[in-house]
Design brief:
The chain is α/β, with parallel strands linked by helices and 342 residues long. The protein has two domains: 198 residues, Isopropylmalate Dehydrogenase (3-Layer(aba) Sandwich); 132 residues, 3-Layer(aba) Sandwich (Isopropylmalate Dehydrogenase), CATH 3.40.718.10. 40% of the residues lie in helices and 19% in strands. It is built from eleven helices and twelve strands. The strands form two sheets. It has a ten-stranded mixed sheet, with helices on both faces. A two-stranded antiparallel ribbon has the order 6-7.
């Protein structure tokens, strides 16, 4: 039977990398019925909203979506399609694996981290207001026992099911004693139920320093929403950038897979975007669908293409060899070529 999946191409470079992922998945032989739905800046002009109701209805119906990046205006305009999706579908887990791929320019080797980020509360959801217009604004940070409990429990369950050894809770409870203090207290409670998995906690600023100094000492990092957004980009920097970092947003029975990088609208339609993160996000989707062998083939094909180094985009080339870079479509062709060999 075919899996029915909502495909949201996104905007900026989204449609190009979404097509790349779609092509790679189809070559695996896994049968997918794609239900294409539009969201983002172009839809905003036509529908008056960047996230029409039919997009949410499609995801609820199909339970699984593959989504390209969508532009979020800075300082003005709609807040974020991503935030709206996570709230509307209660996608409380943001999962971002950061693993070294041989051939990707990086200062580190052997990095293998998983960032587990709470996705529905904290400052990142944008509860803001003007106290004195133009003079004072405030944002409300909300941390709940339920939200903390379920994200930390997910981290430990993920550790168990994937053979991971340690969970580190990241917080700022030394200063934010009530909000982050609650998150840390709950994390320690949950950890007691998993004696087979190591547990520790680190203050977020120290965590950032330690990741730069000793990334090999860490395994799974679990944290509130805003810290997760920042630390996951730091982790991407350890393995060569957002262009090789996939992501998943998970809830009860619903999952949306997307790359960690943004829409890069200045490169839209120029065949320059690295498709690896989007294709690796599709591999995460295949795992979620139970198509583990196909997912492994996709991951190996991406790694082989990057390791070979001949048909990769500019961000994966040394600065003195940028002229040898290929485009999005050509890198996708190379990945598909390796998939065929597998």
């Amino acid at each position: 039977m075919a899996h029915r999946v909502t495909l949201i191409p996104g905007d900026g470079v989204g449609p190009e990398v979404a097509l790349a992922a779609q092509r790679a998945v189809e070559v695996t032989g896994v049968k997918i019925e794609w239900e294409v739905q539009r969201a983002g800046t172009e839809v905003m002009a036509q529908e008056g909203t960047p996230l029409p109701d039919q997009v949410l209805e499609s995801i609820k119906r199909n339970k699984v979506a593959l989504k390209g990046p969508i532009t979020t205006p800075i300082g003005v305009g709609f807040r974020s399609v991503n935030v709206a999706l996570r709230k509307a579908l209660d996608l409380y887990v943001n999962l971002r694996p950061a693993r070294t791929i041989p051939g990707v320019p990086s200062r580190y080797e052997g990095v293998d981290l998983v960032i587990v980020r709470e996705n529905t509360e904290d400052l990142y959801v944008g509860r803001e207001r003007q106290v004195i217009p133009g003079e004072v604004a405030e944002a409300i940070k909300v941390i709940t026992r339920q939200g903390s409990q379920r994200i930390v429990r997910f981290a430990f369950e993920y550790a168990r099911s994937n053979g991971r050894k340690k969970v580190t809770a990241v917080h700022k409870a030394n200063v934010l004693k009530l909000t982050d203090g609650l998150f840390l207290h709950v994390a320690r409670e949950v950890a007691q139920g998993y004696p087979d998995i190591g547990f520790e906690d680190l203050i977020v600023d120290n965590m950032c320093m330690q990741l730069v100094l000793n990334p090999d000492l860490y395994d799974i990092l679990v944290m509130p929403n805003l810290y997760g957004d920042i630390v996951s980009d730091l982790a991407a920097g350890l393995v060569g950038g957002l262009g090789v970092m996939p992501g998943a947003n998970l809830g009860q029975g619903v999952a949306v897979f997307e790359p960690a990088h943004g829409s890069v609208p200045q490169f839209a339609g120029q065949n320059k975007a690295n498709p690896a993160a989007m294709i690796l996000s599709a591999a995460l989707m295949l795992r979620h669908l139970g198509e583990v062998e196909a997912a492994q083939r996709v991951e190996k094909a991406v790694a082989a293409t990057i390791s070979e180094g001949k048909h990769v985009t500019g961000d994966l080339k040394p600065r003195n060899r940028q002229s040898e870079a290929v485009g999005t479509a050509e890198m996708t062709d190379a990945i598909i070529g390796h998939l065929g060999k597998g």
